[in-house]
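Progress report, Aim 2. The chain analyzed during this reporting quarter is listed below.
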Amino acid sequence: MVRRILHPPTYQFHRSSGQARVRIDGRDHYLGTYGSPESHERYQDLIHTWRLHQCESDHFTHTIDDLALLYLAHAKQHYHKDDRETSEVHCTRSALRFLVATAGPKRARDFGPKLLKEVRDQMVSAGCAARHPPAGPIGAPGRDD
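Predicted structure tokens for the chain:
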């Protein structure tokens, strides 16, 4: 069986109307004024729906909350020593607390550098992270670890 790589339909400019459009399964969907934030948001929603129909999994609909719970369950199972959880589980839970508080209900596909910066800023303001991590690998000369 040949495996087909599916590329999402492209965001296009409809010259005669000045609107953004996307053609999905032979049907044009007009998104609003070309280049506007609303048209890009509508495009993302249509592509999201298109992807759901292309695959059987719902992995495009996970929220940050969903992934945090899944990862915490993985950490509890993976980080064990002598039938007890290691401190890594506590560290993971602490880090995820800031992530969920800042971006929990957002879809994972919408998480990017700006949200990551917000999470980091929350951690820094709470005193749980350094503003600028030390340069170089751990154990490098000039680093006190």
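The radius of gyration is 22 Å. The chain is about 45% helix and 15% strand. These observations will guide the mutagenesis work planned for the next reporting period.
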